[in-house]
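thread: overnight batch results

M.L. [08:02]
morning all. the overnight job finished for the chain we discussed friday. pasting input first so we're all looking at the same thing
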Amino acid sequence: MRKEEVPQDQGIADGLKEVTYAVDENGDYVLVPSTGWEPKNISNYQAWEGIAEQIRTARQQVLNNEASPLAYHMARNLMDVSLLAQYMGIMRWRVKRHLKPRIFMKLNQNILHRYASLLKITVAQLQDISLVEELKIPGQDRK
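M.L. [08:03]
and the structure it wrote out:
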């Protein structure tokens, strides 16, 4: 693609630019900033909508007392049990136990602080998902 043909379709990057390779007038490859490309924007929106649905499902499970608030925060941070266990430095089976509401309510403050610190939230937000701002899909207002 020629340098002047690099797409500049506003999208999910919300004004940020990514670097794309293009050919200049001398036939050399150069780096050109691009605000986006419509097909890529569509696929990114679809991926974020899928993520938002997973977060809504996790939220509902917490509200129905089927899962602990940790499940919601994991979904918000695109984490699974293995990843969270690895970051926490604990076994996966412990994280799985912490996903049970009854077990989560009994966690000591040390573990709660470690989870909260890792997730960059307060312990109060960790325990009460209503205190956490709803996740917005980037660039959603442009659709």
